[in-house]
């Protein structure tokens, strides 16, 4: 498994993601640019985040935490799910596709981590407990200015668990890192989405 993607792979993934959404909208789709390596065939977890270009408002985010699909397929499926099946938002329309910024987060394998070892901005987290699970990408606590404990509390909330569930010895806390591919920085994500709105990834 490659530690980082070549530029051709990064451009190919962006083309795959946008093309997958366009195809569902009945728009012409061009294939990914030539020159991508075999990295797109490696099984990896991936999330696709959609934001409005003008104000950075989240428009959808869905993905796969487990490495069960080839990376190219995982990105294509996640892009369509984020655009059309994220229950927090209305489906993306043909008229707004060009105004959306796509960001792809490619996940490393999930590994167990102690709460005190969590590094905000570096680690994405998943918690599993009592039949519930929730996941937050590394960029989320940075955007909201959370410290480590706030991050853990909101992770539990994302899973539908009590905020202190991360302290339960039976809870499974898993960490991962991500490689980001896309134009997230140009979208200037807003900081005024309050946690109560639950509009983070």
Largest sheet descriptor: 4 strands, antiparallel
Mean pLDDT: 88
Structural class call reads: alpha+beta
CATH homology superfamily name of the largest domain: Hypothetical protein ph0010, domain 1
User: What's the CATH first level of the largest domain?
Assistant: Alpha Beta
Provide the CATH architecture of the largest domain.
Answer: 2-Layer Sandwich
Strand order of the largest sheet: 2-1-3-8
Structural domain count: 2
Helix content: 10-25%
Strand content: 15-25%
Number of separate strands: 8
Number of helices: 4
Order of helices and strands: HEEHEEEEHHEE
Summarize the entry for a quick read.
By secondary structure, this protein is α+β, with helices and mostly antiparallel strands.
Q: What can you see in these coordinates?
A:
The protein has 201 residues and is an alpha+beta fold. It has helices spanning 7-24, 71-84, 139-144, 148-158, and strands at 45-52, 58-64, 100-107, 111-112, 124-129, 132-136, 172-176, 178-182. The protein has a four-stranded antiparallel sheet with strand order 2-1-3-8, covered by helices on one side. A four-stranded antiparallel sheet has the order 4-7-5-6. Strand 1 (45-52) and strand 2 (58-64) form a beta hairpin. Helix 1 (7-24) packs across helix 2. The chain starts with 6 loop residues before the first helix and ends in a 19-residue tail after the last strand.
């Amino acid at each position: 498994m490659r530690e980082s993607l070549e530029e051709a792979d990064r451009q190919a993934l962006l083309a795959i993601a946008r093309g997958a959404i366009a195809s569902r909208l009945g728009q012409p789709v061009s294939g990914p640019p030539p020159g991508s390596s075999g990295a797109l065939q490696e099984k990896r977890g991936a999330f696709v985040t959609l934001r409005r270009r003008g104000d950075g408002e989240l428009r959808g985010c869905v993905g796969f935490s487990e490495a069960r699909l080839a990376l190219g397929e995982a990105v294509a499926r996640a892009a369509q799910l984020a655009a059309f099946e994220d229950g927090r938002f209305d489906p993306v329309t043909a008229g707004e596709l060009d105004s959306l910024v796509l960001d792809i987060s490619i996940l490393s394998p999930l590994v167990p981590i102690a709460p005190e070892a969590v590094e905000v901005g570096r680690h994405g987290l998943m918690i599993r407990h009592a039949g519930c699970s929730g996941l937050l990408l590394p960029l989320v606590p940075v955007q909201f200015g959370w410290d480590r404990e706030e991050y853990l509390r909101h992770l539990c909330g994302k899973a539908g668990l009590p905020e202190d569930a991360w302290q339960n010895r039976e809870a499974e806390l898993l960490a991962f890192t991500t490689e980001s591919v896309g134009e997230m920085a140009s979208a200037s994500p807003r900081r005024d989405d309050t946690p109560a709105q639950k509009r983070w990834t």
